[in-house]
Amino acid sequence: MIGSVPESSLPLTGGCNCGAVRFELTETPLRAGYCHCTRWQRRTGTAASPSAIADAGTFRIVSGEDHVRRWNAGDGADKAFCGTCGSALFGQHPESPEFINVRMGSFDSDPEVRPMGRLHVASAAVWEPIPDDGLPRLPGPLEA
């Protein structure tokens, strides 16, 4: 694990932009990474999206479950977002339900875990070069 959250900082809280959806993590995320896939580029309008990977048993929606919407293209993880403001919140792959990928921008404070790699670089945006930050670059996903 890279970094750890001081026990007094737990639970980690977060939510959407409009405040309709709130969530918490009761344990430190296991790891984090940047995703450069085309879907994230289209969903966020950015070249890459950082997510913290956590044990799904430590995650819970505190309020606003009725505002959460999910989308799945049929060949990947469910993508959860706020149906009111559109904020990307988390994702979960049906083949790995024991993990949840929480969008790092949705945390209220520093989750104290840092991206340890860049995933799906084979589809990285040509209009924004990947920074030379020393992180490993993988053509596909990070293996659990």
What does this structure look like?
The protein has 144 residues and is mostly beta strands. The protein has a single domain, classed as Metal Binding Protein, Guanine Nucleotide Exchange Factor, Chain A, CATH 2.170.150.70. Helix content is 5%, strand content 34%. It contains 1 helix and 10 strands; from the N terminus they run E-E-E-H-E-E-E-E-E-E-E. The chain has one helix spanning 38-44, and strands spanning 12-15, 22-25, 31-35, 49-55, 59-63, 68-71, 78-82, 88-92, 99-103, 115-119. The strands form 2 sheets. It has a 7-stranded mixed sheet. A hairpin with a 5-residue loop joins strand 7 and strand 8 (88-92). The longest helix has 7 residues, at 38-44. The chain starts with 11 loop residues before the first strand and ends in a 25-residue tail after the last strand. The mean pLDDT is 89.
How big is the Rg? 15 Å
Gross CATH architecture: Beta Complex
Question: Which segments are poorly predicted (pLDDT under 50) over 5 or more consecutive residues?
Answer: none
* Topology pattern, helix = H, strand = E: EEEHEEEEEEE
Counting DSSP H or I runs of 4 or more residues, the number of helices is 1
Describe the main β-sheet briefly. Answer: 7 strands, mixed
Number of beta-strand segments: 10
> Roughly how many Å apart are the termini?
13 Å
Question: Helix/strand/pairing class, anyone?
Answer: mainly beta
- The top level CATH class name: Mainly Beta
Helical content band: under 10%
Strands of the largest sheet, in order across it?
A: 6-7-8-9-4-3-10
Number of domains: 1
Tell me, briefly, the overall form. globular
